[in-house]
Amino acid sequence: MTYEPVIGLEVHVQLKTSSKLFCGCSVQFGQDPNRNTCPVCMGLPGVLPVLNRQSVLLGLRAAIALNCRPAPFFKFDRKNYFYPDLPKAYQISQYDLPLALDGFLDVSVDGQARRVGLERVHMEEDAGKLVHAEPGHGVPAGTSFVDYNRAGVPLMEIVSRPDLRSSKEAHAYLDALKQIMRYIGVSDCDMEKGSLRCDANVSIRPAGSSTLGVKAELKNLNSFKFVERAIDGEIARQTEILQSGGKIVQETRGYDSASNTSHAQRSKEEAHDYRYFPEPDLPGFSLSPENIESVRKNIPELPAVRRARFLSEYHLPDYDADVLTAESTMADYFESVAREGADPKKASNFIMAELMHDLKSAGLSADQSPVNPRHLAELLKLVADGKISGKISKEIFPVMFKSGKSPAEVLKEENMELISDAGVIAAFIDQAIAENPKAVQDIKGGKQSTLGFLVGQIMKKSRGQADPALVTQELRKKFGL
Amino acid sequence: MTIDRKTVDHVAALARLGLTDDEKSKLATELSGILDHVEMLSKLNTDGVDPLYHILPLKNVFRDDEARPSDVRDDVLKHAPHARPPFFVVPNVLEE
Which residue, A207, A285, A466, B64, shows the most beta carbons closer than 10 Å to its own? Predict the structure, then answer.
């Protein structure tokens, strides 16, 4: 029998705020353990959580960008479970009246458009971090260390419908989600810093069936690649069980990337008995249509729309539009260069070949580029006007990148301006003719294509600084062509 | 509604409460009584009454997103049952 995988993803993204969800502690990453704590997030008696306004605005922005219906009224609930990463023994989350419901995300898988349904978007606080005893780690055996810096950090959970049918689709969904969240400034979505986490619900069913199979929830997926691998492994595991006449058990499985396997996490079933109830310390929240409209108005152009505009407005190929709109900072940079009058395709080529490479090596994003868009436009104009060769432009670009200087300044300092003095060029021509008797003979014998070879030799001698048009013209004159 | 011993065991386990047999029996009776008392509410006709989510007539209480250091860490660590500053120490919770 053939089986069809059914996959749903639960993604947590950290909302990009300065302070925690219900208290004024900083959310700065990499702080000394327990430095970012206060009586509220450590759950001391007598404290009162107060909701961070910015986290609601960011959550709302995300919900709208994901085509969800923002709730006219939402509230928080306590999710009770006993674990040392949770100082209050409950997590403040949202249960029956979340921030937003019913959205979708369009993703592209192998060039095919797929619409993935979203069930809900809700806000909740993060838990602390446990450091387990490990040899050489300094944690005594039989104990765990606790760091509450992350406890109370604002998270948004985005729950997809079970609409995904392959690990590849899951990966594409995550890529699209991350891109949008970064575009609209809701989250950095940096998995290494814990600002994006993903759990996958995976089940299989006989192809063509419309009922859902028993699912396993995969946890500890630390990269998009691992999400893909863990899902593939789970599909294979479940298929094997069903084919050998076994039954799937609903369970949580932890993925181990080193061995590329997953293991049932033997939490007792009762651990899922969260006994949700309304959080009495927080009143409810209502959003007026005006509130929602003002958030909607401030959402920047989303990646898919921007990509389509790059195709139509700048007549760029698909590939260029994809690369340039992957990050909004890069798309902004490109548009600034184009606005300064550069030819869009030439600008795109130069950005993809030179700028992106240098930014990557320097670990910078486009908005941090030492070469400002106006300087890049000037450089491209010098090439377009024949003032410097393309080769020179590539040579001086790293200098511009290092110094932040304009192309004119760099050309002057490096003594690299275009040679358009006919006398100097004539000297290069004579030299090239003397050194390449065979080529000269070929040209005289009527083989005009060899002319290009000589032009190349002359350009080389001039270190790319000779005006190629002038060289060709003078060379033709010399041979009476 | 009656709370039986099984339910008491379950809830006690969830809350990590170690109760004696006597305490469990007593709690089963008391909790049943409390639920019976509250059960009276279900006899009322609530058609046309909006659900109440919060006891206070408050809505939309926010704070601005400003980070303010609290600096209570060392004091709290001092009062923790077990600490190895800057960490709190708890019994190993790695699942078997």
Answer: A466
Neighbouring CB atoms inside 10 A of A112's CB total 9
Is the pTM here over 0.90, yes or no?
Answer: no
With an 8 Å Cβ cutoff, is B47 touching chain A? no
Give the span between the Cα atoms of A218 and A196, in whole angstroms: 15
User: Which of A130, A186, A268 should one mutate to test binding to chain B, selecting the residue with the greatest count of B CBs within 10 A?
Assistant: A130
| Residue A368, burial from CB neighbour count under 10 angstroms (0-12, 13-18, 19+) | exposed
CB contact, 8 Å: A130 with chain B?
A: yes
Of B13, B67, B77, the CB nearest to A270: B13
Does the domain formed by B5-42 have CATH 3.30.1490?
Answer: no
- Using a CB–CB cutoff of 8 Å, tell me whether A148 touches chain B: yes
How many Cβ contacts (< 8 angstroms) between chains A and B?
137
Predicted complex ipTM: 0.89
Nearest to B87 among A75, A145, A283 (CB): A145
Which pairing describes strands A73-74 and A285-286: parallel, antiparallel, or unpaired?
antiparallel
Residues forming a β-bridge with A217: A201, A252
Which pLDDT tens digits describe chain A residue by residue (481 residues)? 789 999 999 999 999 999 999 999 999 998 999 999 999 999 999 999 999 999 999 999 999 999 999 999 999 999 998 888 999 999 999 999 999 999 999 998 988 889 999 999 999 999 999 887 665 667 777 888 999 999 999 999 999 999 999 999 999 999 999 999 999 999 999 998 889 999 999 999 998 888 899 999 998 898 999 999 999 999 999 999 999 999 988 888 999 988 999 998 865 444 568 889 999 999 999 989 999 999 999 999 999 999 999 999 999 999 999 999 999 999 999 999 999 999 999 999 999 999 999 999 999 999 999 999 999 999 999 888 877 888 889 988 999 999 999 998 888 887 777 777 777 788 888 888 888 888 888 888 888 788 888 888 888 887 777 877 788 888 888 887 7
Q: Length of chain B in residues, anyone?
A: 96
Asked if B65 and A273 come within 8 Å (Cβ–Cβ), the reply is no
Domains and CATH numbers, chain A: 3-294 (no CATH), 301-414 (no CATH), 422-478 (1.10.10.410)
